Write the structure tokens for this entry.
Amino acid sequence: MHNFILRELKTKNLLAELNEIGFDKSYASRAVDKYNYKNIKIFGLTVPQANILKQTALSVGADCATGRDVITGKAEKSDCILGGSVAQLSRIAVQLGLQPFGLRNLGRQIEKFLSIEDIPGTKIMGILNLTHNSFSDGGEYENFEQAATHLIKLIEDGADIIDIGAESTKPFAEAVGAEEQLAKILPILDFARENNVEIPISIDTRSAEVARLCLEAGATAINDVSGLDYDKEMASVIADFDCPVVIQHSKGIPETMQINPMYGNLMDEIFLDLNRRIEFAISQGIKKENIIIDPGIGFGKTREHNFEIINRIEEFKVFGCPILLGLSRKSLLNMPDADNDTKDIFTVALNTLAVEKKVDIIRVHNVRLHRMLIDMLDNV
């Protein structure tokens, strides 16, 4: 009896594997789509839409899971999971263009989903906290001279972006007024301008007043951990300045967010909440290309929630917005008594996953270690 040898392929470079076995090179680049499988969750289809989608999927050899009551007719709507190769999904999208009940638009959205490409290279956002009570380095850079020195160090260490904040949003932290934030941030922005700092500077604030005055002073982006919810004027400020904005998911406010955070379906709830925030931003005149999304590690999440987000971070790429991930020195490391050097080592280890999953921006305290990480992984 012949002893067959089997090996599961985990590589994303299927084209190289096809060429290795001697597959027809003139067809290999097209054939890759037949071996690249995806599962897409589609929310809130009506019964006719779900039934047609399932039959269309089956007709091309793919499949679509629906709620049981779609078959019985007892359900009004159902979420669906459409699964198949990229080639099959492309055929489904084309066939949906001929269907009623608004499915032509679903076909277009599937085609758009399949066309999303990874932007090569993870950028490093260096953190400059001007606070007295940040969880990691509160008070270290509250003094202007210390802050200015650290700004230059972050740049020299290889930061692509600097994120400056004067309000701690750690769990149970209290809000800081705009006047106090501006008193710390504006002198650093003046220093950056006087010293010809050219890399982008983001301002970590929930205050529209702080955002407006900092953008006038030379800042280039805003990082709003409330996802535009805290200050109702924030969206109009972003739209007026036509600048990038980080829209983050958070469950609650810093004062209460870590008090027994609970979810029915973690990824669904974050996904739908970010979708709502993106749609709101666009409705307020913010350009889609200016939106960066952040799932909010540690903002209303347990340690288990945080790790699930990291493992499944690629699911947010469907929005077509750059993804920011901030896990530096946070409680998910589970080492509250460790020094920052130790925390940085484990932060780098976790951010290796982020880089491999092609997260667009990682927000970190130790820029030098992460620049070394990215330079090393570029060789892999």
Observations:
- The first helix runs from residue 14 to 20.
